[in-house]
């Protein structure tokens, strides 16, 4: 459209060449020709263009409810196409096409020459947060996805500013390319690209990759903060996804499609200039695996700021989970306890004994080691049918999100002064979900590290010295080389406490 001759301009030049025929006659001819040409131009100008292609969600389901065996290999081969860089700015400005698929566009308008309706300008960027980097923008926003560029055109002259935002929820994550957010200095700045597609819906721009592929990180790093950022729109929001992972969108398709009525846009392959009136760049991780209501955006579907209990209710609705309350213990109905057995390190070495102790406490017990390839809905329904979830610290405890409110989650904390980490990762989130959190700390006598290293080894004798030596050593010994043999007599009071709590729920 921008390259076509405007009708009025052509008629004016025609009139000037024929002034010798008389001013009055020329004016009438100009007016008549203008009206005819304008009507023809209006009849042929395109207004709405809708295209369709393959959906972005790959129907394969990869990963499942718990185990993270083979994660590093999967990260290298499947979902981490870019080599991680210690300093992001030193990476070449390239986009990887690995795993990307065509997307189905939402209805769009060819409004390259149109000026969006006037609204109050708003640009709020936070690059100094302890965990995440984000920008919230309202006004004239223009996005070139393949360039990872967001241009904000102010409605009046203002100071030119620029921010580099890593759209993954952890700002220190290497291997995730940054998005450049630029506020221009005037509405007439030639750096503003013309809009090819103008969306009525707002948008959230975020990145996959990073630590996704680990079940706990899938929820803590992406699903929970994405819910907090987008639930207020009631589904009318466009997801712009950098470093897209089709298998990930396929695995969590039910959740993603409940949050957005539009198909996700593969940002790295999208050279179209898309224009929005409202955009959030990046996901804000409030705390691990939870939502802090005061930090969530206002204006949810019913007007309140969303909570972690809202997220778990959303999951129960999304996966049609039947139970919204635990069972009350009675002679006719024993509460059900789900004991998660990890497939590798931090395993329970005496599962039969623990199962027998739980049965003696009055529970009906299920022992499960969730399959990595199990559909999420399958795992969700299994967990929701139980009243108590027990597991050693690890990704399997993430499944507490599917328990009915008022249920109990028991975290078995491995030896090595890991209690603070355990409470941050699961204790506080579980309480925010509306569940009862109980904790059982493993003693040195219950850890296989004692038999492996002996009582005088610093790992056994002085865990604080291991912590002082750095996270790598903590992870190597206490998370990577330790299994657990629970003292069932010592564990019995924790089981009794869980049963007593359920009885009080009547």
Automatic annotation (TrEMBL):
Chain residue ranges for the region called Disordered: 60-127
Composition skew (Basic and acidic residues), residue ranges: 70-79, 105-121
Membrane topology of the entry: Single-pass type II membrane protein
Molecular function via GO: pentosyltransferase activity
Pathway assigned to this chain's UniProt record: Glycan metabolism
Localization terms from the record: Golgi apparatus membrane
GO cellular component terms listed in the entry, alphabetical order: Golgi membrane
Statement: the UniProt record of this protein carries the keyword Glycoprotein: yes
Domain Glycosyltransferase 61 catalytic residues, every copy: 215-409
Keywords in alphabetical order: Glycoprotein, Glycosyltransferase, Membrane, Transferase, Transmembrane, Transmembrane helix
UniProt-recorded name of the protein: Glycosyltransferase 61 catalytic domain-containing protein
């Amino acid at each position: 459209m921008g390259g076509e001759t405007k009708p009025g301009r052509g008629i004016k030049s025609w009139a000037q060449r024929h002034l010798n025929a008389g001013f009055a006659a020329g004016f009438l001819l100009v007016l008549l020709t203008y009206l005819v040409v304008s009507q023809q131009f209006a009849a042929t100008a395109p207004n709405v263009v809708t295209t369709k292609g393959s959906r972005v969600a790959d129907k394969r389901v990869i990963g499942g409810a718990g185990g993270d065996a083979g994660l590093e290999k999967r990260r290298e081969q499947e979902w981490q196409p870019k080599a991680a860089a210690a300093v992001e700015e030193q990476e070449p400005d390239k986009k990887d096409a690995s795993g990307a698929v065509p997307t189905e566009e939402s209805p769009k308008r060819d409004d390259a020459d149109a000026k969006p309706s006037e609204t109050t300008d708003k640009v709020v960027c936070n690059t100094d947060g302890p965990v995440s980097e984000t920008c919230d923008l309202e006004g004239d926003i223009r996005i070139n996805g393949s360039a990872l560029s967001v241009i904000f055109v102010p409605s009046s002259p203002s100071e030119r500013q620029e921010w580099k935002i890593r759209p993954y929820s952890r700002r220190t994550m290497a291997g995730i390319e940054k998005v450049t957010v630029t506020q221009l200095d005037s509405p007439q700045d030639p750096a503003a690209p013309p809009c090819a597609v103008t969306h009525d819906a707002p948008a959230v721009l975020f990145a996959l990759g990073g630590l996704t592929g680990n079940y706990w990180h899938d929820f803590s790093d992406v699903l929970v903060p994405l819910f907090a950022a987008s639930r207020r729109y009631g589904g009318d929001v466009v997801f712009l996804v950098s470093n897209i992972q089709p298998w990930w969108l396929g695995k969590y398709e039910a959740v993603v499609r409940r949050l957005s009525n539009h198909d996700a846009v593969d940002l790295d392959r999208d050279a179209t200039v898309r224009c929005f009136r409202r955009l959030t760049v990046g996901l804000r991780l409030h705390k691990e695996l939870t939502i802090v209501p005061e930090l969530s955006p206002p204006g949810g579907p019913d007007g309140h700021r969303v909570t972690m209990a809202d997220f778990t209710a959303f999951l129960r609705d999304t996966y049609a989970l039947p139970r919204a309350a635990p069972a009350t213990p009675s002679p006719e109905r024993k509460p059900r306890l789900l004991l998660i057995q990890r497939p590798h390190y931090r395993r329970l070495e005496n599962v039969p004994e623990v199962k027998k102790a739980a049965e003696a406490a009055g529970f009906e017990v299920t022992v499960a080691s969730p399959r990595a390839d199990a559909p999420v809905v399958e795992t969700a329904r299994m967990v929701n049918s139980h009243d108590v979830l027990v597991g050693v610290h690890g990704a399997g405890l993430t499944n507490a999100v599917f328990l009915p409110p008022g249920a109990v989650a028991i975290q078995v904390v491995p030896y090595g002064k890991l209690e603070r980490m355990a409470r941050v990762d699961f204790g506080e989130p579980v309480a925010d979900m509306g569940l009862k959190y109980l904790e059982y700390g493993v003693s040195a006598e219950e850890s296989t590290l004692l038999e492996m290293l002996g009582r005088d080894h610093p790992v056994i004798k002085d865990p604080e010295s291991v912590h002082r030596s750095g996270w790598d050593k903590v992870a190597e010994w206490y998370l990577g080389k330790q299994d657990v043999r629970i003292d069932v007599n010592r564990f019995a009071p924790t089981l009794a406490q869980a049963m007593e709590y359920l009885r009080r729920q009547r």
